[in-house]
Amino acid sequence: MTAPLLAIKDLRVEYRGAGGVVPAITDVSLAIMPGESFGLVGESGCGKSTLAMAVMGHLGLAGRIARGEIVLEGQNLVRASEAELRRVRGRRVAMVYQEPGAALNPTMTVGRQLMEVPITHQDASAVEARLLAARMLADVHMPDPDLVLGRYPHQLSGGQKQRVVIAMALLANPALLLLDEPTTGLDVTVEATVLDLVNELRGKYGTTLLYISHNLGVIAKVCDRVAVMYAGELVEEAPVGELFASPRHPYTRGLLACVPRIGQDKRTAAFVPIPGQVAPPSAHPAGCVFAPRCGQFRAGICDGTPIALHSAAEGHRVRCERWRELPPFERASAATAAVAARGGSPLLAVEHLCKSYEMASPIVSLFRHPLSVVANDDLSFTARRGNILALVGESGSGKSTFARILAGLQSATSGSLRLGEAELAKLPVNRRTAALVAAIQMVFQHPESTLNPSHSVGWPIARAIKKFAAARDRRAVDARVSALLEMVRLPSAIRFRKPRQLSGGQKQRIAIARAFAGNPELLLADEPVSALDVSVQAAIINLLLQIQLEQGTTMVFISHDLALVRHIADHVVVMYLGKVMEAGPVDAIFAPPYHPYTEALLSAVPVPDPRVQQKRIRLEGEAPSPINLPKGCRFAGRCPRKLGEICEREAPPLSDAGAGHIIACHIPLEELRRVESVFATSESAAARP
Amino acid sequence: MSEQIHSEERAPPSLIRRLPQSRVALVGIGLVLFWVILALFAPWLGLQPPNAQDYAAIAEPKPSAAHLLGTDPLGRDMLSRLIWGARTVLTVAPLAVLAAYLVGCTLGLLAGYYGGLLDTVISRLSDVILSFPVIVLYVILIANIGPSMLNIIVAVVLASAPGIGRIVRGLVLELKSQDFVAAALLRRETPLYIMVVELLPNCRGPLITDFCLRLGYTTITIGILGFLGLGLPPPDPDWGGMVQQATAMITVWPHMALLPSAALCSLVLGFNLLADGLRELSLRE
After folding, report:
1. What ipTM was predicted for this assembly?
2. What pTM value is reported for the model?
3. What residues of chain B lie within 8 A of the CB of A452, using their CB?
4. Which of A215, A468, A621, B281 sits 20 to 30 Å CA-CA off A222?
């Protein structure tokens, strides 16, 4: 048996802070074999990134390895001197960080930063280094590598920067490459190409990977073996197929039950969120760290002494005393939520809505044709009463601009937007009637900025109740605040707390309570869960669905997450660069015929199930800038199925595929219908002759 | 199941409550409180009247049993004049800075929240005022409107408000894009309400530090104006004026100039250390 490339034994990492010593990693042991791709999953605060930093020897002044060892190729890094560590870093271990923009020096050209690596680590001459850098850029599929060498980081897009960072990490030909959330923050189509690249380079250079992510779908795509971390401990480790097919630890099972799955929606299966939240290190229980949130907890077994890792099968370790007794894992959860019937009367009607921004001041535009940014172009769709309409698209698709126009925070340039009888397109919020303002309320994306840090969390709810005259005297307002807090499953006493004392999920609950203070007819949810951990995300989505049903509220749900949209929506509008590409009932969107853009989006979705086979459609480059766009189809420049010149010259016609399913494409509908589904499980593929 | 709130997770106490954690801030507070207490209780300390002249002491003004810190060139008791001088400084400086804050915060909120032409006008006018060397500005102003307590306050407001406005404007520009402002708009709150209730309270961190620093600057300014003869009209004691009257005798009787200078120094140091401590605490969060 070969020796592992990286072996971590009984690792404990602590940080010294103002409040004393805080352990970030309490017990982690793992071994990564040469050539393996090892995934590390967990929610925020579980110690994933600390582990990567410990391997790199970058814990900083406050961090300290309190116990255990990190052995790389036989050398114990914990006891290595700073000079030895420097030799290891870059040469034997390299790291790709989450934020590619922060990993590159903005004052140096890409070429100089890349050339530094061979010059420092391999004593290469400048000419050799330049050649190596250009070759490596070609290997990461950067168009025009020689040109890119002379560019500065700000001249590259996010995906290109991440390619440069990966190239830089690989230039030293390291034995081990650490990737810490390398695709978080990238659009899904760009993420797919970066993941392809990681897989390809791994085959080419034989690099061992330690891939850190919170996204189970991404892990399923690139890893051979997966370890799950919770609250500083490694709780389960298994080969990727086994982990997803038969997870043993209740936490792993909980995580898998929280993520939306392609092929299921709110009608067939509800999310089963993990109750509670990760306890701070000071409040960790004596026994199993997951015990307070575990449905399988048994007193006398799970509390008391720390739990050891048990070997459940060959290469499958689990930190649970009761793993033998747990029922077999069911992939599809039995629970289903009650949902509203599809198709009510239209509530919101959008017709030819346009929004553009002039880039120059009126004086400049006297001399030059002004640049205009088109954020929304000719949007037309309707939202029906009691239904959930989802707007999907990558960054820059104009989803949020539409939300701001609907809420009255901005005015449209032209077109019409009607809620019932009221025309809203050019009516800013301060000119709307109180009833209209109360009718459209919003839940925002960032839990950190949605509440005013200076006021208690109950205050905006009470204020909204008074403003919308739902109640006037203090006792009635207090009662209503309590009722709203109860609706979002928060204790009434939480109203006296400041936002900084709440977790992200609790803040979003407060935001939902605030939005419902005026009994809105229409709730606008702009990426309400994208900043939350998956277990919290599931709970918030369940809550939104339940309240939406109880109150009969219509919801416009904005998201970039197609799997989530598949779960929650009744109708879907797919947007690209301000234009509607495809619209229709959710089942129609996720099945052929597809718009080529939707098809590409679906094939890029990271699916948390290694058995699901996806069609491989990759888009070139990234969405162009929305300044002075051409006349034809917005998607023509990146479309893998482009017909020819007509796509660039003429706006595509709208074809009706039945049941309100609209596709904006030059390709005839019959041809689009012939496309196979993007998803196929290996079982059904095997069943086919 | 509902999410539990961590009952053990207490709110970190406010900046003022955590002051004892910073040694620097404690020294600053000590210095400031020393002068504040003396000034508050000046009438009951059994001091000689600050303007009473002891002609016998003029020939030999050095410290003695009758005059613990000696007398000034006119035979007035130094100790009494220092403490009564503290009373003046500690009234004028906070009043002036408070008034400057009132004007500065208003301008900053308006410029930051509305932007556009209003912002341009306010910001450019501020630039004009800030382009003057501060002392020259004070001298021109006081020389024109005459030295008095009210006029000193007016001058401090004119010279400090643009700087305060600039700080507030910067903070407001950053804050107004936050979602809680959009949420307030979606409740049909008025602009005044959003500025005062939603935005201003979130500026307090940087403003508290700046307030202490500005108290120090203003103390110096009042001293300089007194020294230049533009301070409070005589005969009431004023630290700057005391230094000025003593300059002719500085080689013979240095204590007459050094004592008020030291008093001024210690008070300014107190304000500055307090500001440093507050900044340190706010960064430690």
Report:
1. 0.83
2. 0.86
3. 180, 198, 201-202
4. A621
